[in-house]
Amino acid sequence: MSDNQEKAVDSSRRNLLIATSVAGGVGGVATLVPFVSSLEPSERAKAGGAPVEADISNLKPGEKMTVAWRGLPVWIVRRTPDEMASLSKVTAELADPDSKETFSYPMPDYCKNAYRARAEHKDLLVVVGICTHLGCIPSGPYQANTNAALGHDPGFLCPCHGSTYDMSGRVFKNKPAPKNLDVPRFMFVNDTKLVIGKDEKGEA
Ligand code: FES
């Protein structure tokens, strides 16, 4: 099998696993488990950090799905109009509103904007869901006025030491976390499918 064919098979396996995980919920665990080992990407693909595809056709406004890429949880969040509107309101409260400092990955040029998103899908946030303090996984998104740590703002909360992030993954001031959440390279295959770890310039 050629490298391209192998990558295509790996992507398909990943898609099926992710779709099953998201759609199955708790009730789907028992039927999912027997398939997991056969759906694992090849050792070569894992070592190389192969890009992964995600089907976002069932992702509704206000929802988040998680895709494993290079062993990292990558969040895909479809933000609501209210969550989008919150971004410009919290600017003065953020440590680095323009994401001038990056954490583990350079900020892709196409996400250097107020939404930290691609122009063709401004509502979709794609970030690595790892707190930049000591690596815990934040929870959320929380809507406005539903979490005391976030106050009136929607966003994410790291349960370990209380860092909070806005709806673009930008950390609020005076929190333990020093940097915003990473934005990996990604691109849209079509309106309902995107690939993480790869863009027009190649793989991350
Ligand atoms: S690991 Fe998130 S605040 Fe410390």
UniProtKB/TrEMBL annotation:
Major subcellular location class? membrane
Give one GO term, molecular function aspect.
Answer: 2 iron, 2 sulfur cluster binding
CDD domains xref list: Rieske_cytochrome_bc1
Q: Which UniProt keywords apply?
A: 2Fe-2S, Cell membrane, Disulfide bond, Electron transport, Iron, Iron-sulfur, Membrane, Metal-binding, Translocase, Transmembrane, Transmembrane helix, Transport
Keyword Cell membrane among record annotations = yes
Family matches, as Gene3D superfamilies: Rieske [2Fe-2S] iron-sulphur domain, Single helix bin
EC numbers: 7.1.1.8
Cofactor section: [2Fe-2S] cluster
Which regions form coiled coils?
none
Q: How does it sit in the membrane?
A: Single-pass membrane protein
InterPro entries found in the cross-reference section: Rieske_2Fe-2S, Rieske_2Fe-2S_sf, Rieske_Fe-S_prot, Rieske_Fe-S_prot_C, TAT_signal, Ubiq_cytC_Rdtase_Fe-S_su_TAT, Ubiquinol_cyt_c_Rdtase_Fe-S-su
**Where in this chain does the record put each Rieske domain?**
89-195
Cofactor note as given: Binds 1 [2Fe-2S] cluster per subunit.
Ranges annotated as spanning the membrane: 16-36
Task: Give yes or no: UniProt keyword Cell membrane.
Answer: yes
Record's miscellaneous remark: The Rieske protein is a high potential 2Fe-2S protein.
User: What is stated as this protein's family in its record?
Assistant: Belongs to the Rieske iron-sulfur protein family.
Q: How does the record describe its quaternary structure?
A: The main subunits of complex b-c1 are: cytochrome b, cytochrome c1 and the Rieske protein.
Write the protein's name: Ubiquinol-cytochrome c reductase iron-sulfur subunit
Origin organism is: Pandoraea bronchicola
The lineage, from the top, is: Bacteria, Pseudomonadati, Pseudomonadota, Betaproteobacteria, Burkholderiales
